[in-house]
Structure formats: structure tokens, C-alpha cells
Amino acid sequence: MHLLTDQDGQPVTVINQGGSSAILLVCEHASRRLPEKLGALGLDEAALSAHIAWDPGALAVSRLISESMDAALIQQNFSRLAYDCNRPPEAPDAMPEVSEVYEIPGNRGLDDEARQARIDEIYRPFEGALSREIESRSKAGRRTVIVTMHTFTPIYKGVARDVEIGILHDADSRLADEMLARADSRYVVRRNEPYGPADGVTHTLKRHGLENGLVNVMIEIRNDLVRDEAGQARAAGFLSGLLGESLAALG
What structural domains and CATH numbers belong to the chain? Predict the structure, then answer.
């Protein structure tokens, strides 16, 4: 079976591909749009607008950083409810039946063919675009630093989160260490919060950063701070400066 139609368009977009920065921005949860054939997955508009479907504000901040730092950006064009591109195909939450407090009826009891169609038409093109960009840069003798961009909810299962920006890493903490050492008091910034490697959120970092020996980091921003253009610009300015200073320190 085929999942995507001509009407759906491409599952991945590469922005500013020729950007001069070593940074390669990745936004796996950029969109809440679903492929036409999946309908609404049995969800109402409130659920499809919520964090379970995408990372509100992540793409806007990513694009601002891309512009200010002249960095390439790879974005996923479909909701993580169709396929979460920060998860490997074998992960149960790659196509979740339950997300936070929401049941996802359209993901319940998927057969092998339906699962494979999502893997082949959403995940593989996204992963392939990222792999090709890394390989192209390597052949050109260019340095690549993987920076994945995410947002998180202020309240999770009834518990408020006071952290405002999380700097996440897996086995390679080089860039995270520099960023944490240089972060000022404009935001509450913490290491591996509100998620960490044990939560299964570092797939992209491991697959494309660690496996290629590339410096990498994952950034999480509390989404109430980037709901409007002013908040997005403030966060992007802070992170652009922090990334620039930290990379300079790494040499």
C-alpha cells in the first residue's frame, strides 16, 4: 500500500542547504499536518493542535536560528502522530497508540503493511535527507554539528515544569557542557530536562551524531515561552548566541 499522495507533498524539507555554518539544525516535530489517507486518526481539533501532534514554536525558532547563523535546517512535514522521526521503527512510540493522556484510535492495531508504509514514506525519506546532507558536507571537507530543536509542555500529566530550556545529550556531552557553562540567567537552563536519554528521546543524536562522530546536542524549549513572535525571537537570539560562543570554545 502507498500512504502519501501527490496532494500530501514531500515528507521532508531542507532549508538554506548551502548555509555556511557548521550547524545542521533538525526539527523532527515541526508540523501537525497528517497525510490525507490517515484522516484525523480519530482525534478532535483540540488534540491535533496539542503537543502530542507536534512541537509548537520549534520550527519558528529553528528558522530564526537558521537565518541568524546561516545554518541549514531539515524539517519533517508531517505530525509525529503519523510517525515520530525521533524514534527508530522498532520503538512502540514511533506510531503511538497512546500519547500523554490521549488515546490515538487511528494508530490502534496497525498491521505490518500499514506500519511499513509509514516507515518507508515518512521516516526513511527524513532520515535519508539528513544522512545525505551529512555525507555531502563530509565529502566537501565541511564540519557538521547536529542541533535538534524541540519544545515541551509547561504541565505534564498535571505536574508543572519550572525548567525553561533543556540542553540534552547522550554519550557525547561536549557541546552541552559548553552551553551549560555559558548560559546566563535569562532562562532557567538545565541538563537533560525535562527528558533525557533514558526516555528514548536521543535517537537522532545517536543515529546521526554519535554514529558519525559528530558533535551534537538537543535543545528543548518550554512552549509557553515561544507562543508568539516576540517569544520566538527572544529564544532564538539567546540560543544563537549560546551556540556560537559554545562552538567557538570547542574550537
Answer: 12-240 (3.40.630.40)
